[in-house]
Please model this.
Amino acid sequence: MVVFAADPDGRKRAIIWAHRSMSEKRVPEGIEGLLENNRAWARQVTEEDPEFFRRLSRQQNPEYLWIGCADSRVPANEIVHLLPGELFVHRNVANLVVHTDMNCMAVLQFAIEVLRVKHVIVCGHYGCGGVKAAMEHEQFGLIDNWLRHIKDIYLHNLEVLESVADPGERIDRLCELNVISQVFNVCSSTICQNAWARNQPLAVHGWIYGLEDGLVKDLSVVVDRPEQIPAIYRMPMTRQADNT
Ligand code: CO
Model:
């Protein structure tokens, strides 16, 4: 399916989205099918916009960094209908931002300092398997150490969470609290604080995606200045913003 969208210059450009109906048969099956899909996609995009790939190959200029769950049902670009080149993406199990995770920190630094994105979006999703696993007492392996960060969030919000009677609702509430916590982790990083200290416009947002309706809910957590984070987490260059 070909969808057109106006770019900032008002020109029309082609977007190819894989809006396959569930009943539509993908041919052929298997790994070869993926390569065939790829060739068909590249051909379609080029037909609609012959310069598309050449233009993108020269540079990327995304305004947004997306930090989301690795869950296959939460594909970043599709959800917000952005083209290749418009969204810088980092995904891991349960969309965690851990300050000792060099992978996530490297993405954050590159996105903010080199690409100079204006927005960082932490997008979780309801019914997250990682969050659910963190609420259980079963061993799943190495990932238990990763999910431990979510148990910490549970403990910090024990009263709120245990006042929710319905188990499904409790998972979803923890999914929301996890997003808020990861927004905070982005903001308390030196990378984010350095950007604010040099007056680089940067806002960090908390969103959550509904698997059942395909809609993103804005959790109304927007942090765009150091005064919004507790003083103890502020670095020297943002410490002066402390009025407390
Ligand atoms: Co998930």
In short: The CA atoms of residues 119 and 188 lie 15 Å apart. The pocket of cobalt (II) ion is lined by residues 69, 71, 94, 125, 128-130 (CB under 6 Å).
